[in-house]
Amino acid sequence: MRRILLVFFYILSIQTVSFSQELVEVLSETFTANSITSMSGSTRNVAEVQLPRGSIGYTYRISVFKRGRVSIGNGLLSLLQSVPMSQLTIGANLAQYALSQNDGTQIDYFIFTTPDDKNAFYRKVDGNWSSCRSFLNRVNTCSHSDKCINETIWFGFRNNNMSQGLDIHLEVVAIVNQDNTDETYSFKITNGALQDVNFQLSADNQNWQECSLRSNYEGTWRFKQSYAYFKLTTQGKGTVNYRINNNERYKITLNRNTLSFDLNKY
Q: Which tens digit of pLDDT belongs to each residue from 141-173?
């Protein structure tokens, strides 16, 4: 009888911790850090990452290139979709997904959870900031973390190279517990085209909803993830299609020379 109760308790424990999880691409963007001897720009840069509600961890890939030589190939999200979720959540060895090509260029990178620390790092107020995680003299890397989880986190990059400016491509994929994702994200779009405009929005770049904005009006749309897709067609002029983020503001404009619509951040 005691053995039966123990088995029942073990099964109940497994069911208690089971939940639906999915991978959500949060960021895939390139940032520049100039060399120490450069007269323009900064040797440091900061990437803001907004983790979806329900995130229990995230995988990130940092790829370092000499200026103007970014070449990524397969994105991190597509690579991770072949990895069992159970392996990701226990911190699987992801070194195989780091880009293999590297000419020896190195960076220091840090993960921040407060805007004050992020700002002090970027402004080089050294001694007045601390990071949640720090990694010095790193080349291409791919890693998983279940630490440093806030609604917003920041990756800080520092280039210690005397003469070589660097491009750093950061990809972040969150593991999201879908049982806790009742929050939605807002996307603000302003119509600055001086005429009414029809366009489309999508959560997956496949299924589109029809939208419209009157001239000089601003609209707000909500999705369950921190990014969405925008599509607008100018009759006889073609279509523009962009991925948009909830933490940025966008304006529809009309190019007077080509008489075609476009979408710009402002």
A: 999 998 898 889 999 999 988 888 899 999 999
Please tell me the pTM assigned to this model: 0.61
Q: If one looks up domain 19-180 in CATH, what number appears? A: 2.60.120.380
CATH 2.60.40.2890 maps onto the chain at 185-265
What does the pLDDT look like over 52-94, one tens digit per residue? 888 889 999 999 988 888 888 888 998 898 888 777 766 567 8
Any idea which architecture 185-265 has in CATH?
Sandwich (2.60)
| Exposure string over 51-86, b if 16+ CB within 10 A, otherwise e | bbbbbebbbbbbbbbeeeeeeeeeebbebbeebeee
